[in-house]
Write a structure and sequence with these properties.
InterPro entries: CheY-like_superfamily, LytR-like, LytTR_DNA-bd_dom, Sig_transdc_resp-reg_receiver. The chain is α/β, with parallel strands linked by helices. It has two domains: about 120 residues, 3-Layer(aba) Sandwich (Rossmann fold); about 110 residues, Beta Barrel (OB fold (Dihydrolipoamide Acetyltransferase, E2P)). About 30% of the residues lie in helices and about 35% in strands. It has eight helices and 15 strands. The protein has a five-stranded parallel beta sheet with strand order 2-1-3-4-5. A hairpin with a 2-residue loop joins strand 8 and strand 9. Helix 2 runs parallel beside helix 3. The longest helix has 18 residues.
Length: about 240
């Protein structure tokens, strides 16, 4: 996946490059400080994504994105800006994401994972089927390649997330929100602010206090709670 950065602030550009290089396999093929230079480059070179500051010289980011939207092959646009007020414009231009400065590392990491996943799906570059269902988790200072189907539930533990299978416990150095964004929603549901459940592992739904539920799962004796705020969506998913 090839990308360019259009950012006239050196510090912000270097910080973004650091995140891209450390949290993705995206290749940065160009860096620009001027909107006109960006337009000239992408008219002659194909790129897959543009990290685009709104406040850049010659042609601002919004105007530049409007021009790009007319291309037959449209790259993903990720706006990077200190201004919230352009979010509506970004939405109308179907931007992939809208990142505010100063950068939040976990927010950037989550966005990059999603960007690569969507790019792979769009271009049929996804790994073979046997690998699509795998995920990298940590155990005893080693990266373990785990089949997602074996995960029963996940639990937030301060700034990390712990994933439980029938007989193993793994961890990932991400918040539960960031980790949930990487999981297929066809199998996993965030039933509580601190828990994610593998829907295919549910074997019993137990009514609990205040119209909530506890869930018994295949492969574990632990009962996963469903919070009141997630009851409506849970009932829809489970056809209750």
């Amino acid at each position: 996946m090839k990308a360019i950065i259009a950012e006239d602030e050196f510090t912000a550009r270097e910080e973004l490059k650091y995140f891209i290089k450390n949290y993705s396999s995206i290749e940065i093929v160009g860096e620009f400080e001027d909107g006109l230079d960006v337009l000239k480059f992408i008219q002659k070179n194909e790129v897959d994504a543009i990290f685009l500051d709104i406040n850049i010289p010659s042609i601002d980011g919004v105007m530049l994105a409007k021009n790009i939207s007319k291309f037959s092959r449209k790259p993903f646009i990720i706006f990077i800006t200190a201004y919230r007020e352009y979010a509506v414009d970004a939405f109308e231009l179907e931007a992939f994401d809208y990142i505010l400065k100063p950068y939040d590392e976990s927010r950037i990491r989550s966005m990059l994972k999603k960007l690569e996943r969507v790019y792979d799906e769009k271009n049929n570059n996804s790994p073979k089927k046997s690998m699509r269902n795998k995920i990298n988790l940590w155990k005893n200072n080693k990266i373990m390649v785990v089949d997602m189907d074996n995960i029963c539930y996940c639990c937030a533990r301060e700034r990390i997330t712990v994933a439980y299978t029938k007989d193993q416990k793994y961890s990932v150095n991400e918040s539960i929100s960031d980790f949930y964004s990487t999981l297929p929603k066809s199998k996993f549901f965030r039933c509580h602010r601190s828990y994610i459940v593998n829907i295919t592992k549910i074997k019993e739904i137990i009514p609990w206090f205040n119209n909530t539920y506890n869930l018994k799962l295949d492969g574990t004796d632990f009962q996963v709670p469903v919070s009141r705020g997630n009851i409506k969506e849970f009932r829809r998913i489970m056809n209750i």
